[in-house]
Amino acid sequence: MRHHFAVLSRPRIRDATVATYKKAGMVDTSDLARQLVDIMPHAQALGMQLVSIGDGTARIRMPYDKKFVGDPKTGVIHGGAVSALMDTCCGVAVISHSSAPIATATIDLRIDYMRPAKVGQAITTHATCYHMTRSVAFVRATALDADESRPVAAASGAFTVER
Known about the structure:
The chain is α+β, with helices and mostly antiparallel strands. The protein has a single domain, classed as Thiol Ester Dehydrase, Chain A. The chain is built from four helices and nine strands. About 8% of the residues have low confidence.
């Protein structure tokens, strides 16, 4: 799975202009990340909502919806929906990093599924970009339902950094 998370704005701003404005402190990274979640078709289709954002961190919530059930007998959300949530949250964490990347794409994302999410409960992912090189960002994420003491899934990944 390789998603390209380009920073877009309404109206669309050229990447070079965004980078210049970000470095000059003229563009609020959190606003750009919010716009990113709002315009991605898969994020809209899955009902993703940006809960919070900080310097290299993001929290995104996906409500329970019967359309995303992977096993009709149990009502458990499909792992693909969880992986899309985690991948998106990791990409947003990279874009929100203070080093001002203008775009990112998933290089590698490992997800360990620890248990099924509780039927009927939203899933929230928290991602942190903990290390950034000139060309690669490293991210960790955790997906939780209402039982925050027991993660649904944990992820670690590497993302491209475009400046």
